[in-house]
Design goal:
- This protein is of the alpha+beta class and 184 residues long.
- It has 2 domains: 117 residues, no CATH class; 41 residues.
- It is built from 4 helices and 7 strands.
- The strands form 2 sheets. The chain has a 4-stranded antiparallel β-sheet with strand order 1-2-3-4. Strands 5-6-7 form a 3-stranded antiparallel β-sheet.
- About 24% of the residues have low confidence.
Length: 184
């Protein structure tokens, strides 16, 4: 199964969960979760995403009362994404009852796609290093530099987890970076 098929399976699992929420809302029954203990690798999907997709699938009703929708969207069932590492070179992702195993090359592709998407989202990444942030640092990474026609420099560095990460620096920032590195 290739990455696109696996991502399709994940999307299908999310769609099934959303349909279950919509069906439950239609029956006016509160949804309960069987997960009582979340592992550190369990991440809850934003209630906004689930509510927006569920709302898109429901017919519009301009006269909604507390009797027809007794629970606010934040308290309704929220699908969860569970990530596990069963083997050194494998990650599994589970949404509801759909599990997909990803190999290293698929994980690299997923990281790239998520990184590209995250770069255009708001809120932006924090300007400073967040307290308690955990990371893996790459010592003496492979790198490549290319001069751009604008005078900027493209620096691409290979991180062991993120892969090749590109940065573009204007000439004044190159000088600042040189000063920072030599004064440290």
């Amino acid at each position: 199964m290739n990455l696109h098929e696996q991502l399709g399976a994940l999307e299908m699992g999310v769609d099934q969960l959303i349909q279950a929420v919509v069906a439950t809302q239609a029956e006016n029954k509160p949804e309960t979760s069987t997960d009582t203990a979340a592992s550190p690798a369990t991440v809850e999907h934003a209630a906004h995403d689930a509510a927006a997709e569920a709302a898109a699938q429901q017919p519009a009703n301009t006269e909604t009362s507390a009797e027809t929708n007794p629970e606010p969207a934040a308290r309704q069932f929220q699908p969860t994404l569970e990530i596990n590492r069963p083997a050194r070179d494998e990650i599994t992702m589970t949404i509801g009852n759909q599990t997909v195993a990803l190999r290293p090359e698929q994980i690299s592709r997923l990281i790239e796609e998520l990184s590209n998407a995250r770069a255009s989202m708001t809120p932006e990444q924090p300007q400073g290093i967040p307290q308690g942030w955990q990371f893996v640092s790459t010592k003496n990474p492979m790198m490549a530099v290319q001069k751009q026609s604008s005078g900027d420099r493209l620096l691409v560095m290979r991180h062991t987890g993120h892969g090749w990460v590109p940065f573009t620096f204007s000439p004044d920032v190159v000088i600042q970076m040189y000063m920072m590195l030599t004064n440290a």
